[in-house]
Design brief:
9 helices, elongated, 8 strands, four-stranded antiparallel β-sheet, alpha+beta, about 300 residues, four-stranded mixed β-sheet, about 15% strand
Length: about 300
Amino acid sequence: TAHDSQVRLFREFLEQKDQDIQCEMTKKHGLQADLENAKRQKIEYENRSRRIMDGMQCEIERWRQLTLGPTHWPQPDQHLRPYWMPEIQAMLRSLVPRAHSKDAKCGLACGVLVEHVYEIQNLTLWDSYCAVKKNVIASISERRECPWARDVLPRSECLRSSMSKLAGVEPDTAANEVFLLHGTKDKSVEAILHQGFDDRLSSLTLYGPGIYFTTDFCKAFQYSEKPDANRCSSVILARVVLGHPYLAEGPMKSHKRPPIVSGHGVPHDSVVARPGIPNGLHGGQIHSEAVVPSAQAYPELLIRFKQP
């Protein structure tokens, strides 16, 4: 009948529409799958590119170490960088916080005269340092709660900028690596350049045992030996791997190592003391400091300067 014919045509129409919808859904799912595949390929490409770049940076840095000259020190004809002196002098003076310039000790640091800058080469130390850095990168790569150097040691940016400008090197952010300063006595300089930093010889324990570094030149200046009129003092600019730092809230003299990282069951890799925290002395902490095991630091530059 006419009614049956209309019903049949309507059913055929609905079936055709259903087929069209299924076809569109299939296409949509196909496009979605293509999109997801493209995203995966992009992530894989970015990860592969990052690995390649990290490998290239590692090789470039190792090549720099090989081309700097013999491993024994001093070698001023090969290590001396006289054209870096103006930049380094300006950098050191800028790393005296303005609020500290009126202090008797810190004020002297504003007038230092840089006499020599040596770029350090020690391939044995460099390879050991890179091995430690690689382990730290693997350890902290998934930790979203890690305090990063740019936030907890903002003045390290000045050191990074100068090293990038002079030597074309950048700290490895994946390891939370920074450039920091370490003041030391002349009698310790040669041992550090030959054998590296040695936390067994450090007498500082305010924030636990380790090698103490700072972003504030006036703090490093206080630990540099006061020479006679004809001699220079020394400060070392070092690469330092912070890894996952513990942010000190006060003195830590009783700690033999940094506290455990919550949720990970391993100690923090370093300790960072920021201005404003109590330090057991009147007025509290006024300088930014970082404390790390000796294996997490590499001497990059030896800076010799005369005090005013």
